[in-house]
Known about the structure:
By secondary structure, the protein is α+β, with helices and mostly antiparallel strands. It has 2 domains: 2-76 and 97-174, no CATH class; 194-255 and 264-360, no CATH class. 36% of the residues lie in helices and 11% in strands. It has a 4-stranded antiparallel sheet, sandwiched between helices. Strands 3-10 form a two-stranded parallel sheet. Helix 13 (298-311) runs parallel beside helix 15. The longest helix has 22 residues, at 100-121. It is elongated, with a radius of gyration of 22 Å.
Amino acid sequence: xxxxxxxxxxxxxxxxxxxxxxxxxxxxxxxxxxxxxxxxxxxxxxxxxxxxxxxxxxxxxxxxxxxxxxxxxxxxxxxxxxxxxxxxxxxxxxxxxxxxxxxxxxxxxxxxxxxxxxxxxxxxxxxxxxxxxxxxxxxxxxxxxxxxxxxxxxxxxxxxxxxxxxxxxxxxxxxxxxxxxxxxxxxxxxxxxxxxxxxxxxxxxxxxxxxxxxxxxxxxxxxxxxxxxxxxxxxxxxxxxxxxxxxxxxxxxxxxxxxxxxxxxxxxxxxxxxxxxxxxxxxxxxxxxxxxxxxxxxxxxxxxxxxxxxxxxxxxxxxxxxxxxxxxxxxxxxxxxxxxxxxxxxxxxxxxxxxxxxxxx
Length: 361
């Protein structure tokens, strides 16, 4: 176990833990959440039967799950300042740099090779192993919680008392029966409800229960169609994901800044005007989001999200001019959002709008 701790540190993981992977207690909770329809269009959440809660069904032979943590928060990205500036585009902090999937998956593969070599060198059979990073039917946070990496907070994200929640997690399934972590971190949310109250779209049905259909991350990333009008003003200037529930969490005063240069902001995505991003050509979008998590939504939805942001922006000629340049864009989805946004700009005669940043004022 100490060898794995050393190797994980060498590979850039801030912490690791080991669990037996038994998530039987999570099965009824997951099914209840799915039966409520809270997954929206994310059909993949209901696919694969019990593989999501039974690691040995996903990878036969699995007896242990190694969970790892990697911090991603860049320094000085001024989250609240950007949120309050209606002309700026707010991009979720996790997506400002390189896509984490490939980076962490590669590191997990390297960790697996070290474990395999160690096993063979000590006369053991090579274990069956596979790494996962938000890319398969795996209940990552419950597994990480069980491995001792933190507790699942009321906002459904993992929290560590000495590192907050600005981090990625990944898993390595293995058939090697290594000792499990016996130290589980108790839930320390207490009576705090800051994350629930700050949500711009009131996506939390209750503590620990998120209706993804109302979540800005879902609406701007997973949702492939129009953004429902009831959520457009509350979305404010958030054009890819949302961090409000993390930004307000008191445990994040202990968060660590990332040590990975790949997670640092690219192309000034942490401080660029909505109008400037909206005028990117498709070629520019493809070039500037290469290797980024943003690429997954495609150019059309990128413009859809930015159009909503511009509808909530200040009534300035630069913003209206940018919108008008896309009136003839060959996409009904984009055109509809542009027309809505122009209407918002015309109707906003400097009266106080209800925008998503109102809970931060």
